Amino acid sequence: MSGIRLERTGPVAHIVLDRPETLNALTAAMWHELRGIVRRLASDHSVRVVAIRGAGERAFSAGADIREFPSRRTGLARARAYDRLVSAALAAIQEAPQPVIAVIRGLAVGGGLELAAACDIRLAAQDARFGLPIGRLGVMPGLGETRALLRLLPPGKLIELVFRGELIDAEEAWRLGLVSEVVPIEELELATQRWIDRLLSMSAETLQATKAVVQLALRGATENDVSYRELLATVYEGVAFHEGVRAFLEKRAPNFPQHRA
User: Fold this and answer.
1) CA nearest 60: which of 125, 118, 8, 143?
2) In terms of domains, do 118 and 186 share one?
3) Are strands 4-9 and 12-17 parallel, antiparallel or unpaired?
4) Is residue 255 situated within a structural domain?
5) Inter-axis angle of helices 76-95 and 28-42, to 10 degrees?
6) Strand 107-109 relative to strand 59-61: parallel, antiparallel, unpaired?
7) Which residue ranges does UniProt annotate as crossing the membrane (predicted)?
8) What are φ and ψ of residue 85, in 5° steps?
9) Does 17 lie in the same domain as 99?
10) Residues 243 and 158 in one domain
11) Which of 158, 181, 199 is the last residue of a domain?
12) DSSP string, 153-177
């Protein structure tokens, strides 16, 4: 059993972390598989939105499966190999052309929080709990994990979250900027669908280009970089741009292509 389940509902792909008996703890194999799934979805132009959630009601993910650490993470060589697995999975999510939504119930701790941070939107039920209690394990955040968290938290707050060594509730996580929205447990699925509908009503090219230009800006790209010029051409020579402007001038709702370009 891989521990990850992929489901499709029209243009929406649902990635389910499916180890509820371990609070959806992430094995090394799951980090590797997650990267592969996201990269395959990235190349599927019929997929417009990706949602990631944990199976069951107790956890999005309690983080990495610590039982693997003695064999998978002990010593420099193994630690580097493990670090690359996690970083590659998080990078795949951040670089995916589709919006990625984390749907969070229960625990989002350690690697689970870092996975959620790599997503574009984080929806939390009121029972969600977040934290980085890694000081009790003697581990450190990897660079890829830190980059994901620094998209949401100032450096000082990230350090403070580790140093506190305790979990915070969904409301505090929202105040810190770790989550996009907090809703009652019974409204989490409705809130998720609202976000999906909102994203599906928008230009897929705009959503994809926004994620791409943020990545370019974070890497220090300039207006003269080839990647940026190619992005401009893709958007402003594309069907969605012409349809969006025409719809605005004609005072009607835009009819964007149903597939990504």
Assistant:
1) 125
2) yes
3) antiparallel
4) no
5) 30
6) parallel
7) none
8) -60, -50
9) yes
10) no
11) 199
12) S-HHHHHHHHHH-S-EEHHHHHHHT
With CA atoms as reference, report the closest residue to 119 among 211, 19, 218.
211
* Residue owning tokens 């980059």: 147
Q: Does residue 86 contact residue 31 with C-beta atoms inside 8 Å?
A: yes
Whether residue 161 is found in the same domain as residue 177? yes
Number of compact structural domains in the chain: 2
Is the pLDDT confidence value at 45 over 90? yes
| SS3 at position 60 | strand
Q: What is the DSSP letter of 25?
A: P
Q: Is the pLDDT of residue 69 over 60?
A: yes
pLDDT value of residue 201 = 95
What is the spatial distance between Cα 214 and Cα 210, in angstroms, rounded to a whole number? Answer: 6
The pLDDT of 146-166, averaged and rounded, is 96
Rounded distance, CA 106 to CA 149, Å? 19
**Angle subtended by helix axes 204-218 and 226-236, to nearest 10:** 170
Residue 132 phi/psi, 5-degree rounding, is: -130, 65
Residue 64 three-state SS:
strand
Q: Give per-residue pLDDT as tens, 157-194.
A: 999 999 999 999 999 999 999 999 999 999 999 999 99
- Whole-prediction pTM: 0.95
- Is 54 in a helix, a strand, or coil? strand
pLDDT by residue (tens digit) across 205-236? Answer: 999 999 999 999 999 999 999 999 999 999 99
